[in-house]
Amino acid sequence: MSSRFARRSFLRTAGGALAATSSLSMVPTIARGRLEKPTLLGIGAGGRGKADLQEAAKAGFDVIALADVVDVKQLSEVKDKRTKGMVEVRNAYPQAQFSRDYRQLLAELGDKVDAVLISAPDHHHFHATVQAMQAGKHVYCQKPLTHGIWEARQLAKLAADKPDVQTQMGNQAHANDHMRRCVELIRAGLIGKVREIHAWTNRPIWAQGFAQPPEAEKVPRAIDWKQWLGPAPSVPYSSQIAPFAWRGWWNYGTGALGDMACHIMDVGYWSMNPGAPVSVKAEQNGATAVSPPINSKITWTFAPNDYSAPDGFKIFWYDGFVNAQFDRQSWKLNKANDEYNHPGPEVLGDVDFEKFGSVIIGDRGKLFFNRSRPEWLLQSDSQLDGFAWPEPSLPRAPNQNNYLEWYQAVQGQLPRCESHFQLAGPMTETILLGVLAQRFPDQELHWNASELAVRGRPELRQYIQREYAPGWEASKLLS
Prior knowledge:
The protein has 479 residues and is α/β, with parallel strands linked by helices. It has helices spanning 7-13, 48-59, 81-92, 102-109, 122-134, 149-161, 177-187, 225-229, 255-264, 266-272, 345-348, 402-410, 421-439, 461-464, 474-478; strands spanning 3-6, 39-43, 62-67, 97-99, 115-118, 138-142, 167-170, 194-201, 279-285, 295-302, 313-319, 325-327, 332-334, 358-362, 365-369, 377-380, 445-448, 453-454.
């Protein structure tokens, strides 16, 4: 017999245990000591960067410097919403030192800056983060943590070597109480031993699946195109690449999977703490040599652990509109309808997939989860009488805000952030293995985590650790 409970029912049963979490979140640590107002460098001042900077300033940081490849003061006119946002950022911090090269700013500022917020495109995450951490700066980096698999491994190692540097990846829902409570309940056996996790999204909503680059355009005077390309391979400028459509390019973005999985897979991955996958396989439609697929399904296989079924468990990912096609003339994805990839009824039953983003399946039931709403759903095939409701074990983020969590960790009020790089690095590595599999559909790639290699596929090394453009070499960065 199936029983269903909403989250609010559980709170009554749990006897107000969430109230006890405040004592868990204020443990002092030996960091840099309390700063009157930590100073912040924001890398990426438009798009997502605008919201990140606003939230960081609200948390208590003093924005003293900004880096962006677009200098809006050299624009003759402001045409689009994104550029307007960049203008608003510059106007909000008129005294902030500005440069189109974050490397220059980091070198010049020295001890004047305490923390760095990175909202640049994916292909800059690693280089900006490493330079900041090497200089002892606390780092908040947007998801995905890195563009490449090797990069994710390096940042996890660097974070382990620098415990006084407070790190946080920008998957904001990681700070939500309902996510942390679900992690605790799954680990406590609420749905039994986990055998499957399913996660889905309607992304991409930008152009993907194109076979050839667009026509070259003249580089606007306000943009430092060479700096925008940075460590990535050089191509002529096009407004269909930057400032937004870069996610649909292998060289700069990681497609829908890299964009959204750090959000949507988070509750399942965090609950399982799985280590590296054994293998990964992708089905996809529309990927080319230059662009990720229009839609895809990914399967990761993991070895058994304390929370899984005896033979291990799998994570399944679904993205993209099913009948979409790339239209070169408009440089957009045209949808035939609003149907996007998601699990079938054998997984969902009669649950409306549009109300949720993931489901964790154990041998005693299913837990449906949406990071954006505190209501989650349990389907249990057994009575819950006798279930030992666990006390909170994960510290709760102040105000369920991961910017404030980072700020308090920087101030020594928290021992660390919960989306720290030693967690975010391995999760990003796992997700990016799925991105790698999208390039080679219908082939099961067996992962050798210790060697950072696909077994029997040495030719794939170039996708695990790519060569950087001159001046951006890894040997210089990590020396």
